[in-house]
Amino acid sequence: MHRSAAGTIALLIAIVVANGCAGAGATTTPIATPTASIPAQPTATPSSASPSAVPSRPPIPAGMPVMPGAEPADPATIEPRVIAQWTVDAIGPRVYQYYLDALPAAGFAVRGRFPGGNAAIIRFETPEGMTLDLALLGQGEHGRRTRIELVLPEGP
User: Fold this and answer.
1) Positive or negative: CA dihedral 54, 55, 61, 64
2) Would you say the pTM of this structure is higher than 0.85?
């Protein structure tokens, strides 16, 4: 599953618009971090079909690295298109570099890099061949916290 460059640019613009523009002091310089990984916790998906139920989501891929210190979001509070979401006390470029190192070390192939100051995407492929995106979104003053969203790519 591949997305056109125009589709990727449109997704980045949508992320920036939805989360506000990069604040003063945002940087795109990556900072190297250790490549240790923590096993991902699968998100719970209720089997109820009621309108208020959490939508069914694909599972987090086995062996998917999660940045140390990342706190998982309650699945009931995240958007339906998001498979899993975490927040970590680290600036976006540091989180971006962590995943550029940790994904290949865990057997996931990085297929696309779309860096940014306050919003970035890393497209990768699981060992089973599924294509996913990690959307990294700066939060708080100067983007000192980062929201990490695991999502299915949009478009062709």
Assistant:
1) negative
2) no
Cβ atoms of residues 129 and 123 within 8 Å: no
CA 24, 25, 26, 29 torsion-angle sign: positive
Those residues with Cβ within 8 angstroms of residue 96's Cβ, 6 or more apart along the chain or in another chain: 30, 115, 120, 122, 136
Unique residue bearing structure tokens 């899993």: 84
Task: Look at residue 1 and give its three-state secondary structure.
Answer: coil
Query: How many CA within 13 A on the CB side of residue 37?
Result: 18
pLDDT in tens, 3-36: 444 444 444 444 433 444 433 343 333 333 333 4
Phi and psi of 146, rounded to 5°?
-130, 130
Decide the pairing of beta strands 119-125 and 131-139: antiparallel
Tell which wins on pLDDT, 135 or 42: 135
Contact partners, residue 43, CB within 8 Å, separation at least 6 = 57, 59, 60, 72, 75, 83, 84
- Measure the CA–CA gap between 30 and 136, rounded to whole angstroms: 13
